[in-house]
Amino acid sequence: MARTRSKGGPASTSADKTVSTTTKAASTSTYTLSAESTNPPKLFVLPKNTSSSVRIITLENPRYGNPTRYLVCPETGSFYEFTKAAPPNKSTPRSWLLSSEKSEKEPALESQTIQSPDLYLATPYDPLFLLLPVLFKSSSNSKSDNLQRQYLSLDDYLDLIPNTDRHFSEILTLPNSHVEKVLEARLASVCDLVEMGDDKMYRPNESKLSTIILSKASKMAEHLPPSMEEKFIKKALEAPVMGVVKDQPPPPPPPTTSTSSPEETASPSASESQSTVTTSSGTTPSTAVTTPATEEAPEPTFAPAITASPATISLQRLRTSLNFILSSYLPPFLSKTVLSSLPSETFTELEEYLTKLSKLRTEAAASRNLDINGGKRARDEDDDERLEKKRKMEQEEKVKKANTSRGVKQLAKVNTAGMMKLSAFFKKA
Amino acid sequence: MLEARLDTANLFKSAVDAIKDLVQDCNFDCNDSGIALQAMDNSHVALVSMMLKAEAFSPFRCDRNIALGVNLTSLTKVLRAAGRDDTLTLKAEDAPDVLNLVFEATAQDRISEYDLKLMDIDQEHLGIPDTEYAATISMPSAEFKRITTDLMAMSESVTIEATKDGVKFSSTGDIGNGSITLRQHTPVDKPNEAVEIELSESVALTFSLKYLTNFCKAQPLSNQVKLCLSAEVPLMVEYGLEGGSYLRFYLAPKIGDEE
């Protein structure tokens, strides 16, 4: 199987692709390139401590409802999700060049290039998220009343999990499978428990869920990746400099669920409940996260009018993390429930600061408007320079016009379509 | 240091007059062989090439290569002050800021002197190869001027068709069509009115009349004009001057649909 892929290889025509790759591609060049593989390999970074029974299964994504692949190790019961790490700069073409060292254990891999620069990372995933849709589904209509919910056994819940490809049930029934035990433990953490003889019955509890999500968020907040720290913490909390008026930079673009930043996906993967990992579907922007950033556009500051206290900053971090988890892992209906069941005073201090900040920003914007309308205050140096340049250009244009003869002006009107430029006939000397 | 004296300002006046309607600014390149000029119009479909050889001047002195960047409209304004039969002297330093022009009316002992500010012009030079044209037509320059002016009434473009029988200028426009055919003839007593056609193969090309009428402003330079045509190359219109000096225009043919 020839997997080598080359750019601009003269031999790899579409016809060659279909032909068995053992037949040499017809080519007149000295070196023949083997045909491009129709199914090029992908590069994965997989967890270390997995048994040979590890599987990749397809399950319904709890947030988006689309089929998503997960890596499951039945013996440890750990779940992993795949995160695609794309190169930060899309315009530069990149590829993988693979070659393997000789090892006794595994057969040497054929050296090859892979055109796609993507790297898939398997990162730990809390299977609790998989359970959440079925756990809380029933209550979504009947306005979250704990008392109306039924107690059900673990098996009942597992039966509810969409199992179209029978992947999930297979994982559960594998010999040595610890998946069920792990799931039960995770289930117990968000449920009220009633024991009826040997049977354990569970009823989902929203406040328990909120606590768990909040603890995940605070864990994540300790290790925010620098890109998120910059965008959602520093810029969102920055206060305008009063007195100095500058053009306000545009608000930061909504984050495209930064699948690209590897540091984000790599860092705090130790804990089972870590949540910094992004989904591999990767296109849905976390809308909740953007709100604080967009409503208060940041400004460059030298001596800001107010500064955020460390407590406020950590609260903003917590909120950012929370919003991220809610918008990437929880079903949409559940995000609202969790937010509303949080203790109301959690973010009071932050809210106060943000209100003050937005007021300051409005003032700054207003004073800037005054400048523009009144025109009495000194304008920006940039502005002045631009005007000066414009004036000069206009003047030059005028002089040029005055020095243009009538004939030249008339020739400008001539339809020269169909006439080739003379440089096409005469070469530059 | 440049110093070049022409017996009659008329030559330079007419040349500049014809060029100024085609290009705005251009360099006069002076070296010991004479004063040359090459420039394209804004659309880059026409090119003017002037060569005033050192022999055309008396005296001519140019120690170093000098490029005189001139706005032609400004130069025309200055040249307007020169009488037709005045002697004209061009002077410039080696790295000049100005071009000095002196007009002397010998009959009246009147001397006028002007300094024209120069400018830096970035120009690309095209190398024009010597071409064997399929057809070379010599005709009175006044005749060519009349043809272009007459056909302007019909259309914006003219088809020049050279065969062994003669040369035919034809135009088709909204109001109708018209054509002028000239046959070869060489009156012995009036060589200026001769029409000569040298032909290696028949050729027919279409050109923009507006450009051609512009070229015809050089008519006072010479009694005869030479049109050189070959399929799919630019037309050359040459006004020959004494001593191998010339003023040449090149114009790209119109290819494809005629609108």
UniProtKB/TrEMBL annotation, chain A:
Domain Ribonuclease H2 subunit B wHTH: 129-337
Domain Rnh202 triple barrel positions: 45-126
Biased segments, Basic and acidic residues type: 386-400
Compositional bias segments (type: Low complexity): 11-38, 257-305
Protein localization: Nucleus
Main subcellular location of this protein, as a coarse class: nucleus
Pfam families for the chain: RNase_H2-Ydr279, Ydr279_N
Function, as annotated: Non catalytic subunit of RNase H2, an endonuclease that specifically degrades the RNA of RNA:DNA hybrids. Participates in DNA replication, possibly by mediating the removal of lagging-strand Okazaki fragment RNA primers during DNA replication. Mediates the excision of single ribonucleotides from DNA:RNA duplexes.
Protein name (database record): Ribonuclease H2 subunit B
Originating species: Podospora pseudopauciseta
Lineage: Eukaryota, Fungi, Dikarya, Ascomycota, Pezizomycotina
TrEMBL record, chain B:
Subcellular location: Nucleus
Residue ranges constituting the Proliferating cell nuclear antigen PCNA C-terminal domain according to the UniProt record: 127-254
Top-level taxon of origin: Eukaryota
Location, primary (coarse class): nucleus
Keyword annotations: DNA replication, DNA-binding, Nucleus
A Pfam family matched in the record: PCNA_N
Residue span, Proliferating cell nuclear antigen PCNA N-terminal domain: 1-124
Protein purpose: This protein is an auxiliary protein of DNA polymerase delta and is involved in the control of eukaryotic DNA replication by increasing the polymerase's processivity during elongation of the leading strand.
Family named by the database record: Belongs to the PCNA family.
Protein name: DNA sliding clamp PCNA
